[in-house]
Amino acid sequence: MDKVRRGVWQDLRRLPDQDAARRFKGARWALLKNPVDLNEDQAATLRKLKRRGGDLWRAYTLKEALRAVFAGDLSVEEVGALLDRFCSRASRSGLKPFVTAAQTIRKRREGILAAVRLGINNARHEGLNPYPVPVNRHSPSRR
Question: Could you give the CA distance from residue 90 to residue 93 in angstroms, rounded to a whole number?
Fold first, then answer.
C-alpha cells in the first residue's frame, strides 16, 4: 500500500500545482491506519480519496481486503477462500506491489493456512528481535 501511495505522491510532486502534493502528503496515516481508528480529518481525507478513485483507492481496498482475511474470527476454509479471492483481485489490479504480494501468498498458501489452523503467529519472534528497526529512518542503525 505504501509503495503505491509514494508513487502517487511522487507523481503529484512533478505537477505544476505544488499544493496538491502538500495536501496529499497527509494522506499517509488515513491510508495505513485501521479505518475505525481514523480521526475526523483522516476520515475526510479517505472519503476524498475514495471519490477520486484510481490506483490509490484500488490499493487501499486491496489492503483492507487482506487485513480482513487475518481478522482472527474466520475458519481455515474461509481464510483460504478469501486469500484466493485476494490473490485473484491483486493479480488483476496491475499494481506491482500487490501482484508481487499475490505471488508470495500463492507460494506460501499452505503455510499460511497451517498457521491459521494452529493459531500461530510471529509475535514472540518479533518481540525477541535484538535489533529493532529504527522508527526514524534518518537515525543511525543499531546493527
Answer: 5
Instruction: Enter the C-alpha cell of residue 31.
Output: 491510508
In this prediction, residue 143 has a pLDDT band, given cuts at 50, 70 and 90, of very low
Closest CA to 62 of 24, 27, 100, 26: 100
CA distance 2 to 45: 16
Task: Identify the helix (H) or strand (E) that includes residue 2.
Answer: helix 2-13
* DSSP 8-class letter at 119: T
The residue to which cell 496491475 is assigned: 94
Digit-coded pLDDT (tens) for 113-131: 998 888 877 766 666 766 6
